[in-house]
């Protein structure tokens, strides 16, 4: 398995457990490689974590594209898919922005820059999908609130230990986003 497979495994693990959790030995063992072989692919663990974060964010962009492309209502498809129980229950393959929110603030500059860029891409994408208010500043603010609602609701739904409350959080956020945008588009 090449360095790309190692990055894929690390990306899954950091989305599941954060950037501090996966050790090099664990990742290499999962990849079917020896711990000693790690340095043939990466100069340091920090380099691997940065590449894994980049991969997580690229996966998130791909997921958003898959949800919206060809959808009759791309905004509804994005909101429904992002705030679904399936997404909540699969952090290893889910949104890197949500998974790494707590870690990004303490990460090295490369991870923080990548995180910032991904949040910016999400805001840009939501700004494209949301109905325009007629004011670029208000449109940007509306998109920023939408991204914050999506990520925040997913984080909370993953954090609570009450499945009914987790479902309620997702449903309330979906309804708020879709109702607000339906009203704004009228």
Descriptive account of the structure:
With 186 residues, this protein is mainly alpha-helical. It has a single domain (3-184), classed as Tetracycline Repressor, domain 2, CATH 1.10.357. 72% of the residues lie in helices and 0% in strands. The chain is built from ten helices and no strands. It has helices at residues 3-17, 24-30, 45-68, 74-82, 85-88, 96-99, 101-104, 109-129, 136-159, 163-184. Helix 1 packs across helix 3 (45-68), helix 8 (109-129) packs across helix 9 and helix 9 packs antiparallel against helix 10. It is elongated and about 60 Å long.
Descriptors:
186 residues, mainly alpha, Tetracycline Repressor, domain 2, 10 helices, elongated
